[in-house]
Every structure is written in structure tokens, then in C-alpha cells.
Write a structure and sequence with these properties.
Blueprint lengths: L14 E4 L5 H11 L3 E7 L19 H4 L5 E6 L4 H12 L3 E4 L5 H4 L4 H7 L4 E6 L14 H8 L19 H24 L3 E6 H8 L1 H10 L11 E5 L4 E5 L6 H9 L13 H6 L1 H12 L4 H10 L3 E4 L3 H5 L2 H5 L3 E6 L2 E6 L23 H17 L1
Parallel strand pairs: 1-2, 1-4, 2-3, 4-5, 5-6
Antiparallel strand pairs: 7-8, 8-9, 10-11
């Protein structure tokens, strides 16, 4: 995918001062940068974003973890205890549209860069904050992290079968969800500012995002005192085949059990009293799945997919990420984007949002630590001169 010029993108002209690190904040600011915002990433001098040093031995500016979250941004490595650097940051905020941070509650205030401080510098500022549990309340000063949010929100306890051991969800579900919620909040605040002329604070918490992801289940508990578990439905499951595994969702059909039996070439079990109703299927799920498992193991994944799809059943192969990244649909969807940084060629996952007039590309490679420091400081000095001459 070729990069669109910044002036053609929806967030062209929006400047973001980015104090974020690791994932929640950077995934948010990368989305803003992808769609044209000028994102200035403020990093600690000499160290930078923690994700630069994650997962040795690929550490440093070429670390894929860091690169995956920081394309299309500029990096300024600053010492905020240095009065000149802090003065430059304040000048940048004065001319910015958005400030984003994902520190623990109180950290930005102690640096003199809290919401009230920034609002005094710039009443139009959108001040966006990502935390673990919220800026106030009993857990506000507790270290926030993806796995903790999974555990405390109830997500980790949700399993297809209570006999399965508790485990950590293997990708950063909370960080990504909260980061996308933070993008939404920033865009909503920018729209409101267009009408009112005033900025505001926007806040998102990992914990809240995980609760929101369970809105259907929560509504059942609070209003019907009942549990719902989509992964535990009796005609849904993951089944090993002779060369892999398939997942089948037996739903949205008048008699999905009859169709599953036809695909598996076994007698129709739907008249059997043990399986005739949804309630009886739940009670006898272990028996039903034992029969399914025995049958699926006799043939390949491709064989069963063909038969299941012939019955118009929802099904898919179970694959790993390496397989998914080279799938024809992934390539057709242009979900892998490429860019170069000197002699280094890199591939990254692109934006899942498709806009016909704003395709995403890698305009700026993930920056080296402090790569744009002098450029950014010069812009701050120029802004100071402009303000002083008004």
C-alpha cells in the first residue's frame, strides 16, 4: 500500500504531544499518526520507551515490538528535569491539539504537566489519559497492566469449560481495547471542540475497557441473575482433526445439530431426547462432544471444512499467527504494510480501518530514540519567537 500524503489525511493539521510508552498509549497515538496527525513522541533521554528494550536480543531502535506501535511518529529524547527541555515541552503544548499519557495517576501532575497545567497553557487542549484502573478510586495508584485488568475484570475467569485451568489471554486484549477507546475519546473531543472551541480531558482505563467488552454477559448477570458463555454453547467447539483442528459454531440455523451430523456422516442426533433441546444439549454436552471428537480425528481439516461448509455451518481452521500473516485474505486486505529505514526493510501489521480516500502507509519509519530531537526543539524555539512577536 502506498502512503498517502499527510495533507490528504483526515487528521492533517492535528498535533499530538505523546508521552506514552509500552502499548495502551502508543497503539492509540499510532492510529492518530497513521491518519495524518503530527505525533511528537517525548521519550526519556538515554532510555526511551520501555518497549525499545523488550524481548532481547532484538532490542534498540529496530526492536519489532517498539516498531509495531510507533510508525509515523517523530521522537524527541528529552530530560524533563532540564529547565530548557521542560520549557520547550510547554511551548509545544501551547501549540498542540492533543496531549496523551499513560502514566500512573499523579505522575504528570508532579511534573507540572497535569490537565490543569496544560489547560492554562492551552484552553483548547484535548488531554487524553490512559490508566490501569482510573485516575481516582481505591485502585487508582495501583500499577495498571493488561494481565491485571484481565484478572480483576472477570475476563480471565471466563472459560469455555470450568474444568479448564485459569490462564492469561495470550495477546494484549486489554491494552489494545483501551487504546482504541482512547482514540475514540480523542476524536469525539476534537469534534466537540469544533463546536465549542473548548478542550477537555478524556480518560480511559484498562479495567473499564475489559468490563465494557463483557457488556452482554454483565447485563445478563445484573438483570436476569443468569450467566451466558458464548464459548460454552453445546454445539460450538474446537475439535482436533488428523492434521490440525477446526472450530465449529453450531448456531443461527433451525436445526444445527442435524446439519452437523450430516457433515460428519453420522445418524441425526437431534431427535434423541438427550439432545433434542438446547437445555438437554447443555446437560449432555460431554457425551455429544465425545462423539464429535472421535469423528473429527478420522479425517483432515480440509476434508471437514468442505463438508461443514456444504451444510452452511460456521467453521474455520485453527491456525497460528505465522499462517494467518501469509493467508491470501490477509494479503488481499493489505493488512501487512512495508517500509524501509535506510537498509532495513520492515513489515508491520497495518490499520484495520479502511477509508477509500485515506489509505494508511508508512510515511515515517519507527523513529530511532531522539531522531527528531533537534528538529522538535527548533520548532519550539520558532514558536517562542512567534509568540513573543505577537
Amino acid at each position: 500500500m502506498s502512503a498517502t500524503q499527510p495533507n490528504d489525511l483526515p487528521l492533517s493539521g492535528v498535533r499530538v504531544i505523546d508521552f506514552t510508552q509500552v502499548m495502551l498509549g502508543p497503539v492509540c497515538t499510532q492510529m492518530l499518526a497513521d491518519y495524518g496527525a503530527d505525533v511528537i513522541k517525548i521519550e526519556r533521554k538515554g532510555a526511551g520507551d520501555l518497549s525499545r528494550s523488550t524481548f532481547e536480543p532484538v532490542a534498540g531502535h529496530d526492536n519489532p515490538v517498539f516498531c509495531s506501535l510507533n510508525r509515523n511518529k517523530r521522537s524527541a529524547a528529552l530530560d524533563l528535569k532540564n529547565p530548557d527541555h521542560m520549557a520547550a515541552v510547554r511551548v509545544l503544548i501551547t501549540g498542540a491539539d492533543v496531549v496523551v499519557n499513560n502514566f500512573r495517576a499523579g505522575v504528570m501532575d508532579r511534573m507540572g504537566l497535569g490537565y490543569d497545567d496544560c489547560r492554562r497553557l492551552n484552553p483548547r487542549i484535548i488531554y487524553a489519559v490512559g490508566t490501569g484502573f482510573g485516575e481516582t478510586g481505591p485502585y487508582s495508584h495501583k500499577g495498571g497492566q493488561d494481565v491485571l485488568a484481565q484478572a480483576m475484570s472477570g475476563v480471565m475467569a471466563r472459560r469455555a469449560d470450568d474444568s479448564h485451568p485459569l490462564s492469561i489471554y495470550a495477546t494484549t486484549f486489554a491494552d489494545y481495547s483501551a487504546g482504541m477507546h482512547l482514540v475514540q475519546g480523542i476524536l469525539l473531543a476534537l469534534l466537540q471542540r469544533n463546536r465549542t472551541g473548548e478542550g477537555q480531558k478524556v480518560s480511559v482505563a484498562l479495567y473499564n475497557s475489559m468490563l465494557a467488552a463483557q457488556m452482554q454477559e454483565a447485563a445478563m448477570i445484573m438483570n436476569a441473575d443468569s450467566d451466558i458463555n458464548w464459548a460454552a454453547m453445546p454445539l460450538t467447539g474446537v475439535f482436533e482433526t488428523s492434521d490440525g483442528a477446526v472450530v465449529v459454531v453450531g448456531a443461527f440455523k433451525p436445526n444445527p445439530l442435524r446439519d452437523i451430523c450430516a457433515a460428519l456422516d453420522i445418524p441425526d442426533l437431534s431427535p434423541d431426547p438427550r439432545f433434542a433441546t438446547l437445555q438437554s444439549q447443555f446437560r449432555h454436552k460431554s457425551e455429544l462432544h465425545a462423539m464429535f471428537r472421535e469423528r473429527y480425528k478420522t479425517q483432515t481439516t480440509a476434508y471437514w471444512l468442505e463438508r461443514l461448509e456444504a451444510q452452511d455451518l460456521l467453521c474455520a481452521p485453527v491456525r497460528n499467527l505465522r499462517e494467518a500473516l501469509v493467508d491470501p485474505q490477509t494479503l488481499h486486505n493489505e493488512m501487512v504494510i512495508e517500509g524501509c529505514d535506510g537498509d532495513l526493510r520492515m513489515q508491520l501489521v497495518g490499520s484495520p480501518i479502511r477509508m477509500s480516500r485515506a489509505p494508511v502507509g508508512m510515511r515515517i519509519p519507527p523513529p530511532r530514540l531522539g531522531e527528531h530531537t533537534e528538529e522538535v526543539l527548533a520548532e519550539a524555539r520558532d514558536s517562542t519567537v512567534v509568540h513573543s512577536n505577537r
